[in-house]
Task: inverse folding
């Protein structure tokens, strides 16, 4: 006969596996300090890039500043966006996705 401890341990593993399959959370791979270090490295990298770009622009000369209000980006090629969902996530977000798709389709039809 199987001991009670073994049955209890297997039951706990089964319950933990069931709970893990039902959650949409993730297990962090990095510690908080590692994430902070990586973010600091990224900030330093972008600061160095912006500094070098600023130095290059000073060498070239000042550019005429464009007003941000008049800045419009128009896409000249189709853009493809991909997303993966399981059936539970699809059921959960179906209404929001249908709303977004209908908005996009209406805006493209009005643009034509």
Result:
């Amino acid at each position: 006969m199987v001991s009670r401890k073994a049955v209890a341990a297997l039951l706990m593993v089964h319950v933990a596996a069931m709970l893990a399959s039902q959650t949409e959370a993730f297990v962090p791979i990095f510690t908080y300090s590692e994430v902070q270090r990586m973010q600091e490295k990224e900030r330093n990298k972008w600061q160095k890039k912006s500094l070098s770009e600023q130095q290059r622009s000073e060498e070239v000369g000042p550019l005429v500043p464009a007003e941000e209000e008049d800045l419009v980006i128009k896409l000249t090629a189709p853009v493809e966006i991909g997303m993966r969902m399981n059936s539970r996530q699809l059921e959960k977000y179906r209404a929001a996705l249908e709303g977004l798709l209908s908005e996009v389709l209406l805006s493209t039809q009005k643009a034509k």
User: Anything to note?
Assistant: The first helix runs from residue 4 to 22. The two ends are 75 Å apart (CA to CA). The mean pLDDT is 77.
